[in-house]
Design a protein that fits this description.
The protein contains 2 helices and 4 strands. By secondary structure, the protein is an alpha+beta fold. Strand 2 (about 25-35) and strand 3 (about 35-45) form a beta hairpin.
């Protein structure tokens, strides 16, 4: 997939692998589970484990190639929000 995020191809997630990354102050994680891709986004600078849960935004998408495309599009839209670009 091309775009702002370098997301692995679908077979990576179908094999059960999670993935996380960041762009500037935007942090995200994608984890396959029970036929869904669960996606989290939160403002940096810290990792998810030490960021308060109330700062996480979570969405779920089908564990399919089109679901991964939807998740990637969601991440790109989410990253543009002001909450990730506060100084």
């Amino acid at each position: 997939m091309e775009g702002k995020f370098e997301i692995p191809k679908f077979h990576y997630f179908r094999s059960g692998n999670p993935y996380g990354g960041s762009v500037k102050n935007f942090r995200f994680r994608i984890k396959p589970s029970d036929e869904v891709l669960k996606v989290w986004a939160w403002p940096g600078p810290y990792c998810q484990e030490v960021t308060p849960e109330e700062q996480w935004i979570t969405e779920e998408f089908p564990l399919t190639e089109s679901g991964l495309a939807e998740a990637t599009a969601w991440l790109e839209q989410e990253e543009m929000k002001d909450r990730y670009h506060l100084t």
